[in-house]
Amino acid sequence: MDDIQVVESKPLLVDRELPGLREAVQQLVVKEHDVETPYGRIHCTMKGVPKTERPVILTYHDIGLNHKTCWDSLFNHEDMSEIMQHFAVCHVEAPGQHEGANTFSTGYEYPSMDQLSETLPLVLKHFGLKSVLGMGIGAGAYILARFALNSPSMVEGLVLININPCAEGWMDWAAHKISGWTNAMTDLVITHLFGKEEINHNPDLIARYRNYIIDMNQFNLQLFVKAYESRRDLEIERPVPGSNVRTLKCPSLLVVGDSSPAVDAVVRNPFNRSLYLFLFSVQPGKLTEAFKYFIQGMGYMPSASMTRLARSRTASGSSITSFEGNRSRSHTHEGNRSRSHTNEGNRSRSHTAEARAHADGSADGTATNNMDQAVPKSTEVSC
After folding, report:
1. What is the pLDDT of residues 59-69, one digit of tens each?
2. Torsion region of 69: left, alpha or beta (phi above 0 gives left; psi -120 to 50 gives alpha)
């Protein structure tokens, strides 16, 4: 048999020949982890490789959803590709809510919403992370807000979608109890995720999300729903000059669909004036656009490409911008529909959106100046 001589050769690909190749490859890295905590194992999915000089985007889903049904359509959207080149993403799932989760034993005490927030520092420690940009919907938004209140040094910013910062009132509790006697868990979750208009006029959307909920481990889901319904008030106060009140210290972005069941709770939020409120019909492109401005306001991605909204402002010279085309009311991020509670799809009618940005004098000067450039302090957008 002839010997084969192996000769070291020049690599076929180098960074200078294909700039961005390393980042593109890193985005394809997906690892699943089970993080041990005093309240059970927390299933996490890390996409991409964390960068030492910037935070990781950490997501938390709503009740009735897991990280895939809640976030895939947003993070797979073409407009997110630029952001994904700069940030790794860690999807965190509440105990027993991930795909293929084993059923908890009878008598298992599910962690409270406060306890779920206490698991997040252990998640950061597990991955060796110093800080995160949190993005949560519904129950997940509440958990991330609680985490930011308790561990402000670990949270650089928050995107809170359809958050209800208040404890469930006794009338809500009674209504859910009565509904629980007559309706399945699936119906209860649907009424949390969607407003009456979507439920009555978008049967395809509702059917799809019913399937998502049915595919969940029903016993485990019931425990998570009960924990959310038993949440405490976040006890956040609006800051007054010279006072020292309990409030979020990080820049935050509030987002709510204009037909969401949470719209009243978000509009009358007790958060401080460093939060930017977007009240509009959301779709992945619009949410990504707002998220990109938000990130730029924090000092990241200063050379990001100009978005449709920025181009329209440049052309019109006005803070009032009109977008052509169809889009959806939304809560999560997928599909096509006429009116939705998720962040996706097309619809025949357009709706006015209001975005109010307020600069917080106590925030970092650079971040505030960048955000002022990225998002006008008072903006009306037709979405």
Report:
1. 999 999 999 99
2. alpha
